Structure formats: C-alpha cells, structure tokens
C-alpha cells in the first residue's frame, strides 16, 4: 500500500471508532452490553454499505440520498424520528423486499431490492422492539461520511480533493477493526494472504489436471518449454534486479545475483518440471498458470482445468472479515476469465458480476466464532459484486451467502455424522447429542441454552453437506487465533484433540482442519514461529509431520519490522507453512527473514527455500530447522553426532559455574564465567561436573556456531534450558584443545568486562555486554570448534558470517533493568 493510503486508513479508522463510540452511547432500548456493541457495529456496516450505493446513484439516483432523507424526515415527522420512520423501513422493506407499495415508494424513493439477509430484520431488532437512536448520531455520521469521496470501483481515482474510500480500503479498515475486537487475531497484510493463496491454490489445480492427463506434464512436455524458453519471465524482477535493492548490503547483492544466475540456468536446462518445484524455487506461478491457459494448453486441457476450477472448495475455518477468502478470490478470478476467454470468448464487463457471484458461492467458504466478523465478510463480498455494475438497472438480488459463511465454533461439533444419528436434516438433535457428551442434560432447557451459547457448536458435515460428499475441502487457508487455552478458565471446553496439550487454540484449529481436508488437499497458514521451535508444541509438530508429508516453511522475525500490522502491535516471530496432505516426504525451509519497512516489497519475491534432509534430533525433536542454505544440513548432522551438554552438568551447585540469562538478546546470547552484577528474574546459572572446565562451555556457547544453532532450532527470543543443554558437544579429550578454548574464554571475558556498560538508577541497574566488539575472539573460538566438529572451510566461513548484517549493526545484549 502507498503511504498516502495508509494515512487514509489510519485517519478513517480513528474516526470510525469515534462514531461507533457515539452510536453505542446513544443507543437505547437494549441493556445487554455485548448485543449493544454488536448492533451499533451492524448499523454502521449497513450505513457504510449505503454510502457506496448512494455515491453510484443506486439510491433514487441521488449521491446525497441519506442526508437529504434525514432532512426530509425531520421536516415531516419532527426530531429523533429518522431511525424508526425512515431507516428501519429502508432496511427491512425497501432493500429486503422485492415488492414496494406506493406508500413505500413515496417515503423511500426508488431503491433497489438487494435480497440476502444483510438488511433483513436482525434477531437483535426482533428481540428489542424499542431500539432507538437519536437524530444527532446520524447527523454526526453523515457529516463524517461527507469528508470522504466514496468510490465503489477501486480503479477509479479521486475526482476532487477529498480522500477516497473504496471497498479495498474499507476492507483493510474493517479487517483491522475486527482483529482488534478478537482475542489472538492480527491484521494480515495483502502480501501474506496473496502469497499463501497463490502457492496453495495454483499447485493444487495443476496437480488435479495432471492426474487426469499425466502424459501432458512429463519432464519433456511442451508445457514446461515455457520455463525453458522464457526463464526470465517467471523469475520475480526483485530477484533479478541488477542494482542493489533498498537496504541490501554488497554481500547480499552478490548472493542474490548468484541465486538468480543459478535459477536462470536451472530453468534453461529443464531442471524444473514439477509444480512443487515452482514453489521451491519461488517462481511466479500465477503468471506461469495464466500463460499455460492462454498460450500453451490445448482446449481439452483448458476444459479439464476449468472443470477442476469449478469444483475447488476453499475454506478459512477462522475467517474473520475474509482476508484469505478475498486473496483466494483474487487468484481465482483471472483463472476463470482465462478459461472462459479460450472456451467462449472474452468476459464482457456486464458478465463480471455473474462471474464473481459464481466464484463466491461456488468456491469460497468461511466460519468464524464472531457474528460481527461474518457480517463484515458478507459486506465486503457484496461491495465487490456491486462494484461490477454499471448502472442501477443492472442490480439484481445479492446472493444468499448463508451456505458459504457461517457463525460457529470450528473446534466444537461433529466433523462426520455419528453412526447412531438418524436424521441428517435435524442439526438441533446433533446439539443435544453433543451436549450430552459434555455432561449437559438436553432436557434441562436453561443448562442446554447456556452450553450452546458458550460453545456455539458447528457440525461440519451437516453445515457443508456437499463438501462432505466430495471428500473434504480442497484447500484450507488462514491465520488462526493465537490464544492460550486452559480448560478451567476458558469460555468453552474443547473435545479431545491430540494437540490440546499445546495449551493454545491454533494447533487445535490445524488439527481440526486436517480432519476437514480432502485426501489430496493442500493447507497453508501463518502461525507463531514457536509452533515449530518449542517443546510445548511437540504434539503439534509430530502431528504436522504425520499429516503433511510435503511441506514448505518460511520464517519471519519481528525486528526490525514485523509481518503483522494494524492497530494491534504484534511483536511475534512468525512462520508460514505450505503443505500437502499426500505425496512424497520432502521438507523445505528458509532462514529466518529479517527486513526493514522499505524492504517489505521484496520480502516474498526473494524467498529462497532449502531442502531439509538432516535427521530429526532424537534428544531435542522440538524444531523444524530454519535453513536457508543446503550446507546447513551437513553442519547440523555433524553436531548431532556429538553428546549433549546435559551430560556434563552437575546435579549439585559448585564453583565450576556458568552464568546466562533466559530472556533478552535479539542478536547475541551472552554467557559469562562470573556472576551478573545485578539481579533480574531472568538471571540463571548452571554448574558442571569437576572434570569438565566451565570455561570450555562458556567459550562454546558464545560462539557464532551456537548462535546459528539457537537461531535454526529455537524461537529467536527466549533461552530455555532444554534447548541450551540439548546443544551437541562432546568434551574434547585433547588437552591442548581444552587449554586453547579456556584461554579464548579468558580473552573473551576480559573483553566483555572492558567494554561493558553499567547503568544505575536508584535501586535499579543494568549491565550491557557489547559482544560484537569481541567478534575477532569469537571467530577464533569458531575456528577451534570447526576442527572439533570436522567442518569444512566453507562451512566455517558460513558460520562466521551468519546473520552478521543485524548482529554487527545492533546493540547486542541490552539487559533489562534489575534490582
């Protein structure tokens, strides 16, 4: 997004929250706080929708329809009558009913029948017939609306000096708003949702076509000739850029050019001839597929592709306001157009509405626990459709999306019909049966109602019967909520999940998604990096490797910049996984990506996946390695042949001690052989058995080799003992090696003490170690360790230079204030 657009979003978001606050304060006739908040938001969503319609002239041909009707209502009926005398009739009768009486036409003017349920009487309106809002609330709101130019078509530029609000911008605003309301939800940028949608959906579709016509996709197939004859076309421009990218060092530029040259050669000689290889090598797969459809495929293959396109089902089980569903829609739309262009001619402008309507109702499915999120998602889809219309005469009833978008708990409910269930048409009976498994008596109406309200069960096979018949969803995408789960304190109780031991909701969401996925389906999500790097997530990681034989993981730090944005700060390292439910066992990963804001546009185009071939660490199986170079497999394999440090620990404290901290240090982890000068809750120490000199371990753990190991195996922030003492190092039997490491440790400690910074503020203080100033000593330690582990010169060079851009450009070990 352009900066000016971000400024518009921030300004509108702030004003939107203020208007919602005033609506909420002025709303009367409803006491229950949650329903008050919900209804205030629903009213605003409806009026936002109408702001776009009136601008296009769809409401009585008047771009100031709402404000003028507000004035006329005050003139005819007096003050504080707009809500009940005009707005409710407009919603419930004018926009929701096909037939308009002469009296209604006089009152409302010519307004379109929109159908759907968005403007129909809501359950809250039916439960609270005395609901009321004073005119002042609407006067404020319409004055706020009037400070913007509302454009249904995102491609239309501003016609005046006002900031433009279009459906895409409003989508960003409402996505941030709903994530602000939902616990554990974060705003996901377009580049993230687009990347996940493209590299999940497109390989799936191509694989389905290849299953029906395998001979068309042999390595010598003419379709792969596109890659061989026009290789530059399918490599992202950012990777091949001949000048340094923003924020790129000379070394990074050289490495990127080397990758580009290698990839260009691989394409020219035909080494890349599988769809999964397009993911691994990060080719522009969307452009490749569109070229296949428009240039390379014969009509029969286009028909096959189109048939698969019509059948693909895409689910976001915690969809929020629909960010991932819209990303999928943006991938599907040009595919449909390319197929239809070949099969029946170009898609006319007036056919775009029908095309998008068919995609939304045929291919896209979403579930969310929050009714407000589903309302926003519905609003966004409706605006997308109406943006295709050229005039009011083209308006037809909006599609009913109740079959596609559902309010419910993705984690609570039956995936498949119980064997004893007699009537698939009576889901209420399913609720009774499920409630009984929770110890709730269905005959106790009050207890059952409380259970149903707190658990919001959703029975997948009854909710999406056509998907059940197809064997499950083709594609599952999303960003599940990162919410700690403790049964005693939670609003609802989970059924049995093998990942429940992880004590967070997102592993359970993925486990449930596996149950919903077709046997040949693909699944991709963005998660906290800790999912693939901490011991408490072991049940999930073991399941992940079993559920998905083929996977690609990319990893992202939160410094200097973070993937998530919006108004909820999310200093969370993250991981994106792309995974297949079937296929050969193959694992790929990236190193942990770090970038500044100016580098964000090149973040995904320059992704580099490396194969992960090293065996799982039997003593420490908690991680999926974050490799960015194939040689890292050999380095880790050499480490895994050694003993764990744990073997050398003393069960009793003694003077042979090492001191460290369990938190802090984003670029260096510091270990010392003297006590910390100040106390903090993260201060720790360990003792070693008498024959094993602690200085050997102090030198070892200050090495760049350990920093590399820590980075590729752990969460990039904390320092847990199981990770630390799981590091592999067989104590040297060579006394000269021991003496050399001890001497380097002494040199290092002297350097640390000399350059350390003491800060005192009253009773608090901190002790900052500038480890980067001792880098020459640390390099010498790594040289000794390279001999110990049998590393090559190339591997040593890799370790010494690992992550140096950020390690040498930062304040390394800024320790927290202590007492």
Description:
The protein has 819 residues and is an alpha/beta fold. The protein is 46% helix and 10% strand. Strands 5-4-3-6-7-9-8-10-11 form a nine-stranded mixed sheet. A two-stranded parallel sheet has the order 1-2. It has a two-stranded antiparallel ribbon with strand order 12-13. Helix 18 links the parallel strand 4 and strand 5. The two termini are 45 Å apart. The C terminus is likely disordered.
State which percent range the strand residues make up: 5-15%
Q: Which residues sit in consecutive blocks of at least 5 with pLDDT less than 50?
A: 810-819
Q: Whole-number average pLDDT?
A: 92
Category by helix and strand content: alpha/beta
Strand order of the largest sheet: 5-4-3-6-7-9-8-10-11
**Number of β-strand runs:** 15
Radius of gyration: 30 Å
Estimate the helix proportion, in percent.
40-55%
* Distance between the ends: 45 Å
Main beta sheet: 9 strands, mixed
**Tally of helical runs:** 32
The dominant shape is globular
Keywords:
819 residues; 9-stranded mixed beta sheet; two-stranded parallel sheet; 32 helices; 15 strands; 10% strand; globular
């Amino acid at each position: 997004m352009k900066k000016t657009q971000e400024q518009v979003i921030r300004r509108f978001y702030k004003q939107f929250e203020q208007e919602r606050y005033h609506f909420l304060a002025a709303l009367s006739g409803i006491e229950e706080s949650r329903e008050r908040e919900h209804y205030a938001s629903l009213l605003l969503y409806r009026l936002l929708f109408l702001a776009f319609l009136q601008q296009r002239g769809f409401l009585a041909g008047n771009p100031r329809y709402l404000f003028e009707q507000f004035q006329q209502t005050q003139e005819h009926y007096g003050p504080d009558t707009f809500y009940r005398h005009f707005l409710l009739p407009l919603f419930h009768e004018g926009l929701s009913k096909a037939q308009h009486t002469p009296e209604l036409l006089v009152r409302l003017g010519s307004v379109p029948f929109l159908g759907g349920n968005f403007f129909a009487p809501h359950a809250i309106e039916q439960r609270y017939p005395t609901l009321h809002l004073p005119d002042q609330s609407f006067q404020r709101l319409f004055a706020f609306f009037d400070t913007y130019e509302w454009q249904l078509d995102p491609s239309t530029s501003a016609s005046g000096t006002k900031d433009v609000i279009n459906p895409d911008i409003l989508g960003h605003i409402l996505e941030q708003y709903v994530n602000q309301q939902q616990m554990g939800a974060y705003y996901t940028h377009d580049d993230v949702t687009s990347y996940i949608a493209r590299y999940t959906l497109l390989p799936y579709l191509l694989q389905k076509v290849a299953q029906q016509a395998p001979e068309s996709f042999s390595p010598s197939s003419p379709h792969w000739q596109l890659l061989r004859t026009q290789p530059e076309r399918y490599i992202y421009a950012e990777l091949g850029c001949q000048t340094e990218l923003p924020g790129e060092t000379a070394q990074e530029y050289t490495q990127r050019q080397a990758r580009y040259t290698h990839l260009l050669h691989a394409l020219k000689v035909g080494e890349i001839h599988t769809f999964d290889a397009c993911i691994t090598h990060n080719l522009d797969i969307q452009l490749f597929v569109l070229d296949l459809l428009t240039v390379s495929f014969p009509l029969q293959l286009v028909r096959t592709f189109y048939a698969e396109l019509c059948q693909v089902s895409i689910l976001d089980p915690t969809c929020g306001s629909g960010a991932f569903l819209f990303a999928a829609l943006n991938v599907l739309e040009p595919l449909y157009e390319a197929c239809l262009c070949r099969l029946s001619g170009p898609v006319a402008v007036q056919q775009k509405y029908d095309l998008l309507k068919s995609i939304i109702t045929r291919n896209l499915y979403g579930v969310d626990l929050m009714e407000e999120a589903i309302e926003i998602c519905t609003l966004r889809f409706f605006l997308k459709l109406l943006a295709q219309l050229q005039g009011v005469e083209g308006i037809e009833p909006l599609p009913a999306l109740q079959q596609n978008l559902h309010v419910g708990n993705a984690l609570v409910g039956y995936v498949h019909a119980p064997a004893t269930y007699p009537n698939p048409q009576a889901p209420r009976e399913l609720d009774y049966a499920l409630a009984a498994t929770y110890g709730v008596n269905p005959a106790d109406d009050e207890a059952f109602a409380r259970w149903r309200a707190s658990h919001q069960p959703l029975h997948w096979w009854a909710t999406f019967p056509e998907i059940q018949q197809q064997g499950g969803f083709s594609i599952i995408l999303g960003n599940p909520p990162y919410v700690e789960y403790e049964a005693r304190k939670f609003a609802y109780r989970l059924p049995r999940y093998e990942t429940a031991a992880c004590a967070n909701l997102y592993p359970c969401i993925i486990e449930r998604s596996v149950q919903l996925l077709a046997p040949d389906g693909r699944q991709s999500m963005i998660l906290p990096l800790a999912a693939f790097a901490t011991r408490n997530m072991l049940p999930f990681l073991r399941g992940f490797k079993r559920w998905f034989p083929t996977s690609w993981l990319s990893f992202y730090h939160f410094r200097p910049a973070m993937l998530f944005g919006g108004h909820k700060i999310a200093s969370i390292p993250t991981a994106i996984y792309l995974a297949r439910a079937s296929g050969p066992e193959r694992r790929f990963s990236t190193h942990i990506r770090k970038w500044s804001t100016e580098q964000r546009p090149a973040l995904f185009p320059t992704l580099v996946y490396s194969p992960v071939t090293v065996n799982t660490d039997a003593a420490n199986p908690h991680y999926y390695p974050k490799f960015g170079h194939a040689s890292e497999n050999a380095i880790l394999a050499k480490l895994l042949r050694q003993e764990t440090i744990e073997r050398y620990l003393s069960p009793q404290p003694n003077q042979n001690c090492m001191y460290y901290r369990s938190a802090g240090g984003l670029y260096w982890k510091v270990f010392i052989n003297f006590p910390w000068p100040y106390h903090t809750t993260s201060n720790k120490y360990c003792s070693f058995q008498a024959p094993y000199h602690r200085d050997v371990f102090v030198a070892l753990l200050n090495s760049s080799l350990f920093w590399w190991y820590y980075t590729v195996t752990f969460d990039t922030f904390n320092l847990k003992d199981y990770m630390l003492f799981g590091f592999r190092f067989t104590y040297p039997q060579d006394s000269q090696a021991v003496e050399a490491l001890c001497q380097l440790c002494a040199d290092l400690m002297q350097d640390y003490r000399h350059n350390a910074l003491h800060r005192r503020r009253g009773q608090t203080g901190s002790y900052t170690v500038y480890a980067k100033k001792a880098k020459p000593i640390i390099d010498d330690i790594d040289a000794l360790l390279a001999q110990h582990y049998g590393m090559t010169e190339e591997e040593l060079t890799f370790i010494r230079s690992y992550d140096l851009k950020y390690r040498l450009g930062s304040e390394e070990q800024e320790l927290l204030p202590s007492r």
